[in-house]
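2 proteins. here.
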Amino acid sequence: MSSRVRGRHRRSRYFSVFLLLIICAGSRAAAQSPAARGNPTIVFMTDFGTVDDSVAICRGVMYSIAPDVRIVDLTHQVTPFSIRDGARFLYGATPYYPAGTIFVVVVDPTVGSTRKAVVVKSRRGQYFALPDNGLMTMVEDRDGIEGAREITNRDWMIGAALSSTFHGRDIFSPVGAHLARGEDWAGVGPEIEVSKLVRLDIAPAKLDEHGLGGEVIATDGPFGNLVTNISADDFLKLGYPRGQTVHISIGKSEMDVPFVRTFSDVPLNQPLLYVDSRGHLGLAVNQGSFAATYGVRPPVAIFIPRAKN
C-alpha cells in the first residue's frame, strides 16, 4: 500500500474517532438537567411586596450561590397570605417557561410551623422550591407531579441558625440556587409521597341542565376585573352568542351584562362579559373597576342560566 493511501486511511480513522467523541459529548449534555447546561432561570414569586428589602435579600442569596443565574420576578404582589392566589399565578405562568426552570415561591402564612419545605418536580420537568401548603394544587391537576422531596439538607440552606420567620431567605432561595447551579435535586432531602402533598380544596365549575355555577376567584391586578373558574368552553355550552345579553347572579346580586369580545365593545363605564386571555370567563367595566363598581369581593359564587331558545 502506498504512503498516500495509508495517509488517507489514518485521516479517516482520526475523523471517525473525532466524530464519535462529539456524539458522546452531545449525549452526555443531553442527559444533564437543563439547569446544568447553562443559562439557568429562576422564576421568583412572593407576597412580600417591594416596600422593604426582603425581595432584594433573597435575590442576593441566590446570586451568591449561582452568580450566572437569571432571575425573573413573576410577582411579589400576591395577596398577602393567599395561597390560592399564589397557586393561580403559578398555574398561569408555568406553561410559558421551559423544562428545567426553577420556581422559588414564598407565600407562607404558617412559616416556622410544622409545615414542610419541599422541592417538587412536575411532569413538565420544572422544579418548585416552596412550602407544602397547597401552592402546587392547580399545577398538579394540569401537569402532574413526577416527584417530591422534603428540604432537610442543611448544606443547601444558609445561616448557622435558621430564622423561624424568613424561610424565603434561609431555605427556599438557597435551595433554588443550588438547583439552578445544576446540583442533583435528590441531594435536597428524602423523597416524600406525592399523594401526601397538601392540596387546596378548589371546587370546579358545575354545568347542569339549569346552567353553569362557578366562583369568582380573584380580581385581575389593578383593574378590578373579575376572574372566574369558568372555562370559555363550558360557558359556550350555555348557548350565548357574542352580542347577547346574559343574566348573571353574583352572590346575592343579579344583573344583565352583554357578552362581547373586548372592553371597547361597550360604552365607557359599562359592564361586559368576556373571555379573558387565560381562556376563562371574566367580568369587567370598560375603563373602570367591576369589583369596585358592584362591590364584589372574591371569593363569591356566580351562576349563569342556559340561554333561552
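next one coming up
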Amino acid sequence: MPAEEQDPDHPRKERLQRALARAGVASRRASEELIRDGRVTINGQVATLGDRVDPTADRVELDGGRVPLDPALRYYALHKPAGVITTVRDPRGRSDLAGFLPSDQPGVVAVGRLDRATEGLLLLTNDGELANRLMHPRYGVEKEYLAGVEGSPTQRHVARLLRGVDLEDGPARALSARVPARAAGRGAVRVVMGEGRKREVRRLLAAVGLPVRRLVRLRVGPIRLGRLSPGEVRELEPDEVRELFRVAGL
C-alpha cells in the first residue's frame, strides 16, 4: 500500500475509494462518484470522501448490498465432473475435490454437496458466513437442474413436480419445472429447487415416475454453469459475488 494511503493509527485501513476499486466495484474515480452520490455506507453510516475502512472488519454496502472487501476471501465456480466426491479429502481414496481446489487458498470448501453421480455447478469459498447462508433452506436460494430421465415427461409429470410429493424425510416439490426440447429421443426435465436435501432431485423425479439417468446442476442463485467444462474452475466476478450476497440476505 502506498505511504499516502496508510493510516498510521490503523495500519490496515485504506481509503474507501481505493478499497472499492480493488474489490472491482468501479475505478477509483468512479468509486469517488458513488461516494459523493451517497450510495455507499460504512457500518450503516453514509460514507464521505476521505473515509477509511478496515477491509477485514468494516461492513461496506453499495445501494444496500454488501461489498466484500477482505482480500483473503475467495469465491470460485467449479464444474464438478461425475464420479467426484464432494469432499476435500476422501479417506477411502475415491476421486475428490482436492485436485480442483486452489493450492494457495487454504480453507476453501464446497458450498453444499452434489452426489457422486451428479455433475455441474459447485460453488467454492472460504467465506463461511456466505456459505452457510447459501446452504440454509431458510433463505431458499434457488438451484436449477437439467435431468435426463427414463420415459417421456409430460405436463402431467410437471404438474406433479410442482404440486409436490411426500418423501421419506418430508414433502418435496419443485419451484418450477418444464420439459425442454428432447435430445436424441430421450426425455429431459429442467427443475428449480429451493432447498438441497440429500439426493432430493433424484428422489422427487423417481417418485413421479421419471427415474434419473443423468443429472446436471446448471445454476445456484444468480451463478450459472455457463461454458465451464467438466473439471474447470473460475473465480467469480465481483458483481457475481455481490449478487450472491444479495440472494443470501447479506
